[in-house]
């Protein structure tokens, strides 16, 4: 299990299409080019978020990224961090 954490400065106070709606959490093995979307979280006006990614292979290094969706669609991906080897 790896805990992914991130924060946002969005307040949700904007009106219309600018309102933050979802976060997408993706991961991949560091040697792979294929990203896997593990979860989509509904934005709840918090400023700090965490998500536990489970089911990972032992002794494997992963990259994680998060993106946000608003009324205009999915925003750019942000790398949260590259993990050390997992030990599940």
Can you put this structure into words, describing what you see?
The structure is a single chain. This protein has strands at 2-7, 22-29, 36-42, 48-53, 62-70, 73-74, 78-82. It has no helices and seven strands. It has a single domain, classed as Immunoglobulin-like (Sandwich). With 88 residues, the chain is mainly beta. Helix content is 0%, strand content 49%. The model has no long low-confidence stretch (mean pLDDT 77). The strands form two sheets. Strands 2, 3, 5, 6 and 7 form a five-stranded antiparallel sheet that branches. It has a two-stranded antiparallel sheet with strand order 1-4.
Offer a quick outline of the entry.
Helix content is 0%, strand content 49%. The mean pLDDT is 77.
- Mean pLDDT comes to 77
Number of helices: 0
* CATH class categorisation: Mainly Beta
Name the CATH architecture.
Sandwich
Q: Cα-atom Rg, whole angstroms?
A: 14 Å
CATH-assigned homologous superfamily: Immunoglobulins
Q: For the report, how would you describe the main beta sheet?
A: 5 strands, antiparallel
- Summarize the amount of helix as a percent range: under 10%
What sort of overall outline do the alpha carbons produce when their principal axes are compared?
globular
Head-to-tail CA distance between termini: 6 Å
Uncertain segments are none
Element pattern in H and E? EEEEEEE
Q: Structural class from helices and strands?
A: mainly beta
Q: How many structurally independent domains?
A: 1
Q: What is the name of the CATH topology? A: Immunoglobulin-like
* Estimated share of beta-strand residues: over 45%
